[in-house]
Amino acid sequence: MRGMTMQPIARCTWPGGDPEYLKYHDQQWGVPVYEDLELFEKLLLDGAQAGLSWITILKKQKNYQRAYDQFDPIKMANWTDRKVEDLLQDRGIIRNRLKIHAARQNARAYLNLIEERENFSDFIWSFVNHEPITNYWKTWRQTPATTSESEKMSKELKSRGFQFVGPTICYAFMQAVGLVNDHLVTCYRHAEIMELSGAIPSVPACNIRST
Fold it and tell me: Can you tell me the distance from the alpha carbon of 171 to that of 42, in angstroms, rounded to the nearest whole number?
């Protein structure tokens, strides 16, 4: 109507004003993911993020998909040393030797894990008892860097040969793929993610997590 102004949408504060970051926040971050290969890709991308901002990796995601054979674990597990050297010359990705070697190793660890357990998604979701954890943070400063669940995940992944999977990386991964809903309570996506995950829409105050 004439004379009316549009109110800004209430969101988490971390995306800032970057259009790509906002799109990721609005459409992907916190949405529960259950597909094995999608979880594998996101875990490796979070490992690539170590020491960097997520927006750096997000802007390179398509380059990673190209360079990493669409995150096909069989192809990645069979990378030759020459392939690794070629990747170190690829300006479209982070040219870090340790991280690229870790990607190959993680593909091998992934294949070993699914040979044993058959389902990577079941393994990942077991750390939250197959049910997303809904948090009720009021400010981004309240969100933890690690939790007992991410520490357990990190320890188990490392024991199976995965690399670049410390507790902080694992928690960022858990946030991204919806094992936890860490959208702020003031963010419009908090309630939407709860609905997607089938979480109960409200909880007693005594159950609200806080720092």
Answer: 12
| pLDDT surpasses 60 at 142 | yes
Instruction: Write down the CATH superfamily of domain 19-207.
Output: Hypothetical protein; domain 2 (1.10.340.30)
Return the SS3 of 168: helix
Residue ranges of domains in the chain: 19-207
Q: What's the longest Cα–Cα distance across the chain?
A: 65
Backbone angles phi, psi at 55, to 5 degrees: -60, -30
Token pair, residue 209, equals: 């997590």
Q: Supply 15's token pair.
A: 């995306």
Q: How far is CA 64 from CA 103, 142, 175, 200, in A?
A: 11, 32, 21, 37
Listed in sequence order, the residues at least 6 apart from 33 whose beta carbon sits closer than 8 Å to its beta carbon are: 39, 42, 121, 177, 178
Over residues 186-198, mean pLDDT: 91
